[in-house]
Design a protein that fits this description.
binds 2-amino-2-deoxy-6-O-phosphono-alpha-D-glucopyranose, 3-stranded antiparallel β-sheet, globular, Rossmann fold, 10 strands, alpha/beta, 33% helix
Length: 243
């Protein structure tokens, strides 16, 4: 893993933007894997600004999102569909039919998972996958214990993930308990991966990622086996690694 240390969230977002704009501009038909959560928001905001300055276009870009909550309609304020639309897609020139986000209210969820996998394959695979990391080491919504061989699947969310994501909902009871998530193998099949890590709530996960063993108990640890991973991590997240 190529680890780039930065001062803070803003610098992480700046560097991530440079990285993504470079990839989008140098690939003929870029296929991007995208993440939600607070971590990539600064990246998306800056990409929009670059688009407004005519420095990047999504005309030839195809996207696949990592995950979606089961049970939330697309127009639910907390759906990842809504997040992506609001934070990125509605503000760049991407074609609607090139955007792929699992449908969390599909009548047949298993079929929806297979369809996401099939569409990724049909697009020729993911060129660059953007990732955040959960405090427990999850990537996408692949919680500790998920098989490294997993493809897009339905997951039961960890209690710690439900707690962490409750901040976006009115009450913890409203947080969905299941999600559709790309699997670990799906993520590992991406040609390149960009992992963004910021803030002291990720310090423990950062220490485990950088210094721990590769284990299904800590999903992000598998990234050490991928040959093209860049991690952009800020000082707050690295705090515990110094000791
Ligand atoms: C969420 C998402 C992940 C995200 C992670 C961290 O539950 N499913 O894709 O990377 O948890 O979120 P945040 O960036 O808000 O800390």
């Amino acid at each position: 893993m190529n680890v780039i240390k930065v001062k803070d969230y803003d610098e992480m977002s700046e560097k991530a933007t440079e990285f993504m704009v470079d990839r989008i501009n140098s690939l003929k038909n870029p296929v991007l894997g995208l993440a939600t959560g607070s971590t990539p928001e600064g990246l998306y905001q800056r990409i929009i600004e670059k688009h407004q300055q005519d420095e990047v276009s999504f005309k030839n870009v195809t996207t696949f999102n990592l995950d979606e909550y089961v049970g939330l309609e697309q127009n639910d304020p907390n759906s990842y569909y809504n997040f992506m639309n609001e934070k990125l897609f509605s503000q760049v020139d991407i074609a609607a039919d090139r955007v792929h986000i699992p449908n969390g209210v599909a009548a047949d969820l298993e079929k929806e998972c297979m369809e996401h996998e099939r569409a990724i394959e049909q697009a020729g695979g993911i060129d660059v996958q953007v990732l955040g990391i959960g405090g427990n080491g999850h990537i996408g919504f692949n919680e500790p214990g998920t098989s490294f061989d997993s493809k897009t699947h339905i997951v039961d969310l960890d209690e710690s993930t439900i707690q962490a994501n409750a901040r976006f909902f009115h009450s913890i009871e409203e947080v969905p308990t299941q999600a559709i998530s790309m699997g670990i193998e799906t993520i590992m099949n991406s040609k390149e991966i960009l992992l963004l890590v910021s803030g002291e709530t990720k310090a423990d996960a950062t220490a485990k990622l950088l210094h721990g063993d590769i284990s299904e108990d800590f999903p992000a640890s598998i990234l050490k086996k991928h040959e093209n991973v860049t991690v952009i991590v800020d000082e707050a997240a690295l705090e515990w690694c110094r000791g």
